[in-house]
C-alpha cells in the first residue's frame, strides 16, 4: 500500500506533454506510479479532475536572510514553489567575517531592498565560511527545499576587505583565494556562483556591488573552481540588465559565451527588454544560441517594474505639504488628511523645490502608470488604461486623477509602473522570449524588493495569464508553461530528481483548480523582524502543495508540516 494516492487528476507532468488523466502514487517521498488505476493508499486524495503538476522550481530568489528565521518562505510558497534557489546577483551573507556583518546587510539592503533593520534583528550569524552557512541552513526545516549559491560580493569582501568592497582590482593572490572559497562552497553543496555587473545594483552607501568592475582574469579565474569540480551554475546580472547601457550587452554575451566554453558549465544571465533599445534582447538571444553554447538567458513572464502607492512610493512624496504634515503619520490618518479638500488643493498646487528622483520619475511616467483594478491584477494593461489616457478621456488633470486613485481602498490601492519588458505596451516580446529554446524562467526575486516590487507571484501569472486568460495576443500551451517552471529550471541546476511527474522522481506536487487559479492584489505587511515592511501577494486556486509527499499547503493555508530541506549540489 502506498503512502499517498492522488486519484482522478489531470496530469501536466512537466515534460511538455499534453495533459492526461492519471492516478499518482507516492511512497517514501517518491512517486511510485503514474497510471489510471493506482492501487490503494494509506491516504487518498480525490483530485476530481484538477490539474496535478510538479512543484515549481524557482531559480532566482533572495531568501538568504529570511531563510535563517522563516520556515514558511512566503510569498513564494503560496504560489506552488517547492524548490527555491537563492544567492543570486552576487549578494548574500557568506562567507562573512565577524566585523563585516553590518556591511553585508547594507549591501543586501541597497541591492535588493530588504529592510536592514529586519536583517540585523533576524539573522543570528551562526557561520563564517560558506560550508558553515550551509550547515546552518540545514538545521532549519521549512515548507520547501532550498538551494544556495556563493555570492561574489561576499567573497570579494572576505578576501580583499575594503579593497574588495570598493571594487579595486584583484591581484593574482586575491583571485586564487576567491577561487578557493568558491570551490570549497560548491564542494560543500552550493549550486553555483553568482556575480553582478549592472550599475543598478548598489549597496546602501551608493557603492556598486563588489565585482561590478571585475576584470576577466578574476571572473574566469573564479570560474575555474566550477570547471575543476564539474559542478555548479555561473549566474550573472550583466551590464545593461536594467537598461543603463545599451551598447555593452552584446560584448557581455560574447565574453559570457567564452566563459561558458572555458569552464564547461552553464552560464545564466538576466535578460529583459529595455526601452532605450527595445529589440536588443533579440540580438542577445541570437548570440546565446548554438549547439555548443551553454548560455541560458533568464527571462521574466511579465513586466518588471514597481508598485506605486501610499505605502510604497508615489508622485507626491516630495511635495512640501506632504513632507511636512503627512509623511510620518500612520496610513489611516494620512488618508483622512489627504481627503481634506484644503490639503488636497495645496498638494496638487505645489511643485517640490527639490525633486526626489523616484517621485519625479512617477510624475514623468503617467502614460505608463496603470491602476491594478479590482482583486485580480492585470499585468498586461492596454495603453488606454494608463492614468494619462484615462485622464485625457474624461477631461481631468492626470495628477488629480492619480491623487484620487492613491486614496482608494483606504490608501492601500496600488498602480503598476512597468520599467522593463513593456516597451511596446504589450507582452508579445515576452511571449517570444518564453518560447526561445535557450530561455529559462526566472527573475521573480522572492524575498527581495520588499518595498516596491512583488514578483514572487510569477508562477501564478504564468498559469492564469499565459495559459488561460490572455486577451491581447496569443496564449501559451499549458504544458509549455508548466515545463518552464518545473523540468527546465530544475534541469539547469542539475536537480534531475524533481520537476517531472514520473516514477522515481521526488514527490513535489501541486494540485490546482485551473479555472480558479489567480493572483490576488498585492498588499503591504509589516511582519518582518523589527517590524520591517514587505509587499506580499496571495493566490487562489492552489488546492494542495506537497513536498516529498507531505502536504504543506491546503487551499493556500500552511498545514504546519515542514518537510523542506537544504539541497546540496546536483541531484542526479
Automatic annotation (TrEMBL):
Coiled coil ranges: none
Pfam families given in the database record: Amidohydro_3
Domain Amidohydrolase residues, every copy: 43-553
CDD domains in the cross-refs: D-aminoacylase
Name this polypeptide is given: Amidohydrolase family protein
Amino acid at each position: 500500500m502506498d503512502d499517498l494516492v492522488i486519484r482522478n487528476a489531470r496530469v501536466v507532468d512537466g515534460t511538455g506533454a499534453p495533459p492526461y488523466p492519471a492516478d499518482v502514487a507516492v511512497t517514501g517521498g517518491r512517486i511510485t506510479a503514474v497510471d489510471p488505476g493506482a492501487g490503494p493508499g494509506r491516504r487518498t486524495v480525490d483530485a476530481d479532475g484538477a490539474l496535478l503538476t510538479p512543484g515549481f522550481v524557482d531559480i532566482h530568489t533572495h531568501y538568504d536572510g529570511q531563510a535563517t528565521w522563516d520556515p514558511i518562505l512566503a510569498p513564494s510558497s503560496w504560489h506552488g514553489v517547492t524548490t527555491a534557489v537563492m544567492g543570486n546577483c552576487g549578494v548574500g551573507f557568506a562567507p562573512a567575517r565577524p566585523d563585516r556583518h553590518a556591511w553585508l546587510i547594507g549591501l543586501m539592503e541597497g541591492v535588493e531592498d530588504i529592510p536592514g533593520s529586519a536583517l540585523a534583528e533576524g539573522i543570528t550569524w551562526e557561520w563564517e565560511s560558506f560550508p558553515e552557512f550551509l550547515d546552518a541552513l540545514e538545521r532549519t526545516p521549512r515548507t520547501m527545499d532550498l538551494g544556495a549559491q556563493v555570492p561574489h560580493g561576499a567573497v570579494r569582501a572576505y578576501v580583499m576587505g575594503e579593497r574588495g568592497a570598493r571594487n579595486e582590482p584583484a591581484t593574482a593572490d586575491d583571485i586564487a583565494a576567491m577561487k578557493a572559497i568558491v570551490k570549497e562552497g560548491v564542494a560543500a553543496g552550493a549550486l553555483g556562483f553568482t556575480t553582478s555587473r549592472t550599475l543598478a545594483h548598489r549597496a546602501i552607501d551608493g557603492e556598486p556591488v563588489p565585482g561590478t568592475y571585475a576584470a576577466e582574469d578574476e571572473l574566469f579565474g573564479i570560474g575555474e573552481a566550477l570547471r575543476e569540480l564539474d559542478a555548479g551554475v555561473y549566474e550573472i546580472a550583466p551590464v545593461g540588465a536594467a537598461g543603463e547601457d545599451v551598447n555593452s550587452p552584446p560584448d557581455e554575451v560574447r565574453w559570457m559565451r567564452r566563459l561558458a566554453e572555458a569552464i564547461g558549465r552553464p552560464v545564466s544571465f538576466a535578460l529583459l527588454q529595455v526601452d532605450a533599445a527595445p529589440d536588443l534582447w533579440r540580438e542577445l538571444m541570437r548570440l546565446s544560441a548554438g549547439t555548443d553554447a551553454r548560455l541560458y538567458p533568464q527571462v521574466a513572464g511579465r513586466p518588471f517594474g514597481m508598485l506605486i502607492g501610499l505605502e510604497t512610493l508615489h508622485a507626491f512624496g516630495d511635495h512640501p505639504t506632504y513632507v511636512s504634515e503627512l509623511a510620518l503619520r500612520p496610513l489611516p490618518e494620512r488618508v483622512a488628511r489627504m481627503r481634506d479638500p484644503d490639503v488636497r488643493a495645496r498638494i496638487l498646487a505645489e511643485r517640490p523645490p527639490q525633486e526626489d528622483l523616484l517621485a519625479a520619475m512617477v510624475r514623468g511616467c503617467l502614460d505608463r502608470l496603470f491602476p491594478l483594478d479590482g482583486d485580480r491584477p492585470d499585468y498586461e494593461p492596454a495603453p488606454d488604461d494608463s492614468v494619462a489616457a484615462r485622464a485625457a478621456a474624461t477631461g481631468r488633470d492626470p495628477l488629480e486623477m492619480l491623487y484620487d486613485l492613491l486614496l482608494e481602498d483606504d490608501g492601500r490601492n496600488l498602480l503598476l509602473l512597468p520599467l522593463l519588458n513593456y516597451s511596446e505596451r504589450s507582452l508579445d516580446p515576452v511571449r517570444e522570449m518564453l518560447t526561445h529554446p535557450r530561455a529559462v524562467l526566472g527573475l521573480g526575486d522572492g524575498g527581495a524588493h520588499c518595498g516596491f516590487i512583488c514578483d514572487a507571484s510569477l508562477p501564478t501569472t504564468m498559469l492564469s495569464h499565459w495559459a488561460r486568460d490572455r486577451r491581447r495576443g496569443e496564449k501559451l500551451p499549458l504544458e509549455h508553461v508548466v515545463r518552464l517552471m518545473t523540468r527546465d529550471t530544475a534541469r539547469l541546476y542539475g536537480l534531475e530528481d524533481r520537476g517531472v511527474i514520473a516514477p522515481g522522481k521526488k514527490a513535489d506536487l501541486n494540485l490546482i483548480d485551473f479555472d480558479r487559479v489567480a493572483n490576488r492584489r498585492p498588499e503591504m505587511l509589516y511582519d518582518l523582524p523589527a517590524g520591517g515592511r514587505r509587499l506580499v501577494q496571495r493566490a487562489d486556486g492552489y488546492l494542495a502543495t506537497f513536498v516529498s509527499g507531505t502536504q504543506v499547503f491546503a487551499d493556500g493555508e500552511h498545514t504546519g508540516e515542514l518537510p523542506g530541506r537544504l539541497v546540496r549540489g546536483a541531484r542526479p
